[in-house]
Write a structure and sequence with these properties.
Elements lengths: L1 E4 L8 E5 L5 E6 L15 E15 L2 E6 L3 E4 L5 E5 L5 E8 L1 H10 L15 E2 L2 H15 L5 H21 L9 H12 L7
Antiparallel strand pairs: 1-2, 2-3, 3-8, 4-5, 4-6, 4-7, 4-8, 6-9
Length: 196
Amino acid sequence: MSTIHSSDSTATPFFWRDECLPFIEARSVEDGRLVCYAPHSHETFSIGAITAGQSTYLHEKSSQRVTAGTAVLMNPGDVHACNPVNNQPWSYLMLYVDSHWLGDIQQDIGLNAESGFQPLPYTHTSDPLLFGKLTALYQTLTDAKSDTLQKHCTAVAFFTLMLETFDAAPAPPLQLSPRVTRAAEYINDNFTRPIK
């Protein structure tokens, strides 16, 4: 049975969950100017879609502007926050996915030989196919006319597509701070000497 929490206010987030699908929950916000969060993290894998406007997306130690059509991704434990740019209107939806369930999909499709979820090296994507499928998954999950099997199959199909897409794409380059780079160079150049 689905549980839906909502109100008529655009400031109140809309929440969805279904006890028959305990591996996934959904949330949406119509006016993100009215619902702001300090940096935080989740125990789940999280993926969101910016559905209108733009926001500032803080992920760990990087910050960037994301716009409608962008999907943002957070591995379990990643510190993040999305907030309005200059108090401009924006809206978004989020899915919170059990990482063990997602790890099982990684294993089932051959992307992970070990058990457990392997974190993704991406923080966002503007891929129109993934964005469209993500918003379609949200619509299916929150549609009272969709049955549990349809919701489950749509979730498996979306996350299979997402994982295969990111596995086929080259990983984004690792951005090290200049201090870390200098320290690594120093250690590499002086590894035979005691470091003081």
